[in-house]
Structures are given as C-alpha cells and as structure tokens.
Amino acid sequence: MNRALGTGLAALLGVLAIVVPLLTPDPNATDYGSKLAAPSWAHLLGTDQAGRDVLARTASGTWVSLGTALLVAAITFVVGLAVGLLAAVAGGAVDAVISRVIDVTLAVPQLVLALAIVGVLGPGHANLVLAMSIAGWAHLARFARAFASQQTERPFVLASRMAGIGRWRSAFRHIMPATATGVLAVTTLHIGEIVLSLAGLSFLGLGVSPPTAEWGQMVAEARGYVDRAPWLVLAPAAVLLISVAAASLLADAVQDRGKR
Predict the structure, then answer these.
(1) Alpha carbons within 13 A on the beta-carbon side of 164
(2) What is the C-alpha to C-alpha distance for residues 198 and 164, in angstroms, rounded to an integer?
(3) Which domains does the chain have, with CATH numbers?
(4) What is the C-alpha to C-alpha distance for residues 221 and 48, in angstroms, rounded to an integer?
(5) Rounded to an integer, what distance in angstroms lies between the CA atom of residue 242 and that of residue 43?
(6) pLDDT, tens digit, for every residue of 178-215?
(7) Which pTM value belongs to this model?
C-alpha cells in the first residue's frame, strides 16, 4: 500500500515536472495587466504579483526544489555510507575519531548548521547544496556505522573471514550491500526533510536568485498577498506536502523490502 501510494504521488510530481511545462507558458513571463488574477481556464492556478502563471512556476520549481533535494540526498548517502562503513570495519582509533566527529556535527541542529554555512559562503544554489550536504552527512554516517557493525557479527561474514577472505574484501562483498539498503531507506525518508529545509532557506532568501522559481521562494514572495491571492501560497505549499508524503511512503516501502 505504501509503495503504491508513494509511487503514485511521485508519478504526480513527475507529471508536474515533465508534462505541465509543455502545456503552460513561460514561468518567468510577466504580464502586469493580469497580475493577481484568480484561477481560470487561462491560468488554472491564477497569476502572481507580476502576472506570471502560478502553475507554470510551480512546475518549474519542481526541477529546482526536488532536483536540489535529490542531489543533496545522493551526496549525503555516498559520504555517509562511506564514512560509516570505514568506521565500522576499521574499528579502533579510526572508529573513535570518526565517531567523535559525527557527535560534534550532530550536536548542532542540521538546519542551523546549514544556515551558518550559507551565511559564511553567501547565498546561491551551489552554496546551498554544499551547506546541506555538510550538515546532513553525519546523521547517515551514524546509521551506516550501526548497520555495518551489526553486519560484521553475522554468521556468513564471520565464515568468510575464517575462510581467509580479507577484511575489506569481505566488507565490500557482504557488509556494504546490506548496509547500503538500510542507509538508502533512511536517506529516502530524509528527502522530505531536505525538501522542507531547502524551502526554508530559500524562504529566507538564501537559495536561488529570482526570477528562478523555487517553492520556498514562491511562498516568501506571496506572503504579502495571502489575503488577496491565497492561491499564491497554496500551490507551492501543496506540492511541498506531496513531496514529503511521497518520500515518507517510498522510504517505508524500501525499508520493508530490506527486511525481507
């Protein structure tokens, strides 16, 4: 059930990102004569304060918001898996040092750390990706270390070591696949959090530069018009909710599959 519903919501986002832009006008095209127009057949979700089509901008923002979230998720997955696996397999001083670094990183809330990094580096898409990646890898590394440590005590892993297979060869052959599956489930679950964090930072003006459409930025631009044009907020807020729900449901499906 989770897999079907999550796949359906993900497909809906795919249609929004791929099909809708083919049917809507340029998301950056302004028409001040039609600004703040209510939803109609000409503009299904109305227009914003510059007369831009809200549906077109919401669809365009899908590429930026979800694309950035998936990029951050991929980076943190690779880094977290590699660091966690290294700590679990190497053990000893290496494990101790890595664990302390993870603890120090996790001592600061992820969004606060990302906000501080962007504050130092300056706003911009590349800096936002870097900040979110630096702030997010430690959580996954801790999970990866825990998963990998459990796998090292499995009978088939111990048997491979007794058969003369080297520690690192055994780690890549037996420990990493199972660990990657577990970390992937956690990463998928965190995509929703990443989307919300990116939207929050963009809301504060630390994301992409206008007129590029991004969901958090759209909400920020619309906050002064909520009483007159509520659709300006409802559209990006709705797709944010759908994205978080899809990520959560798909994460549950991946986790259930990993338990089989």
Answers:
(1) 0
(2) 47
(3) 2-21+47-259 (1.10.3720.10)
(4) 9
(5) 21
(6) 888 888 888 887 888 888 888 888 888 888 887 888 99
(7) 0.84
